[in-house]
């Protein structure tokens, strides 16, 4: 299957000398949800801006559905809906007029039924005649989403879409994302809410200091880089580990109430051997539970390693 977005050898250095992107190569599949994670200033917004034709690259090439973003800008950009991070809208325009105008910008024929459905999905229909300047911050964020979707794009970029919004909007947005995905829309998002990326994304890309550290299927990433823990609550606290229990991966909690066994998620756990050693040492436990590292923990470790 041909990628819907292809980024090859992309670099961006600003006039100030700041290098925002270094040799980015990326292929995005049709219909997938890709989450781009990275610290502030890592280059996420610059990458999105170049793919959307807002910022020119210093070198490299971007194709959107086969169209070069610089040579065939209009055709490429017509495939894309963008929800920017910043709230910037025409204050005196009405909600419905703004959405109609956005649809017309891309040469789409008027479709009142579609726009009504879109505004209802985003709880904006009752505000359709309101001036944008009178909307709350959350409603303005909903309007940005409506404008981005007004021309029925095949690709949707969401740049920190839930930053500073209420829980209701966040839930509405992710429900809409799932619905769009079912319709075959490709979605690329940046977010500081890593639990959202963990819940929503098919693949994870990590950017740090302008470099794309990795792009991996979420499940494979968590399997390859994650760790697991087995925590055993002891019947009686221990002051220290018995000699035959000392070894790599096993530790005693500070209060002596728990044994913690940490192991690589990819390899044999050795749990059966551990339980035998506990029995031999006369250490009884009353409860045990396991935990796998979260995407947030993996992300933090990756960024630390890349420094």
Total of helices: 10
Name the CATH superfamily assignment of the largest domain.
P-loop containing nucleotide triphosphate hydrolases
CATH architecture title of the largest domain: 3-Layer(aba) Sandwich
**The level-1 CATH class of the largest domain:** Alpha Beta
Task: Tell me the distance between the termini.
Answer: 35 Å
Helix and strand pattern: EEEHEEHEHHHEHEHEEHEEEHEH
Strand content: 25-35%
CATH topology of the largest domain: Rossmann fold
Biggest sheet descriptor: 6 strands, mixed
**What is the count of distinct domains?**
2
Mean pLDDT: 84
Estimate percent helicity.
25-40%
How many individual β-strands? 14
Give the overall shape, derived from the CA principal axes: elongated
